[in-house]
TrEMBL record:
Organism superkingdom: Bacteria
A single cellular component GO annotation: cytoplasm
GO BP of this protein: regulation of DNA repair
Family: Belongs to the RecX family.
UniProt keyword annotations, A-Z: Cytoplasm
Domain RecX second three-helical positions: 58-99
Name of the protein in its database record: Regulatory protein RecX
Native source species: Puia dinghuensis
Coiled coil: none
Stored Gene3D superfamilies: Winged helix-like DNA-binding domain superfamily/Winged helix DNA-binding domain (1.10.10.10)
C-alpha cells in the first residue's frame, strides 16, 4: 500500500491557489481538496480563510458563474441548478442571487427551444399520450419547474 505524505500548510495553500485560479470553486470542493492533501481540520479552516481573504474563493461568484454556465451550456432549469448548488453546500442566499441572474425571457426561450427539439425527436412515436409523457419527463429532468412545463403544454400542445 502506498502511503501519501501530508503536505505542509504552505504547500497545500499554494496548490489550492492554483486549483482555485484555474476555475471558480465552491468552499466545499476546496475543503475536500485540502483534506485530500492530508491537512488537519484546523489547517483546512486556516487555508480556507486565507483563500477567501486573497479572493481566490468567493461562493457568491462561484454560484453566479455555475448557474449561468449550466443554464447556457447544458440548458438546465432553475430546479436542477438549485439542487446541484445545494449538493455543493452553497448558501441559500448565494443560490437565490445566482438564479436571479438568469434572464427570464432567455429562460422561457430555452424551455421552448428544448421542447421543440424534443418534439421533433419524438416524431416517430405514434401514441400522442406517450409523446406528451416523454416530453414532460424530459423537461422536468432538465430542471424546469412543473408549472412552466404545464404552461408550455397549455400554450402549444405537442402534435
Amino acid at each position: 500500500m502506498i502511503r501519501r505524505t501530508a503536505l505542509s500548510l504552505e504547500q497545500a495553500l499554494q496548490k489550492a491557489r492554483h486549483y482555485c485560479g484555474y476555475q471558480e470553486r465552491c468552499h466545499f470542493e476546496v475543503q475536500e481538496k485540502l483534506y485530500s492533501y492530508g491537512l488537519r481540520k484546523k489547517d483546512v479552516e486556516q487555508a480556507l480563510a486565507t483563500l477567501i481573504e486573497e479572493n481566490y474563493l468567493n461562493e457568491e461568484r462561484f454560484a453566479i458563474q455555475y448557474a449561468g454556465g449550466h443554464f447556457r451550456l447544458k440548458r438546465w432549469g432553475r430546479v436542477r441548478i438549485r439542487y446541484e448548488l445545494k449538493q455543493r453546500q452553497v448558501s441559500e442566499y448565494c443560490i437565490k442571487k445566482a438564479l436571479a441572474t438568469i434572464d427570464e425571457a432567455e429562460y422561457e426561450n430555452t424551455l421552448n427551444r428544448l421542447a421543440e427539439e424534443k418534439v421533433a425527436s419524438l416524431a416517430g412515436e405514434p401514441n400522442l399520450f406517450v409523446r406528451k409523457q416523454k416530453l414532460k419527463e424530459y423537461l422536468l429532468r432538465k430542471g424546469y419547474e412543473q408549472d412552466r412545463v404545464n404552461a408550455y403544454f397549455a400554450a402549444c400542445p405537442p402534435h
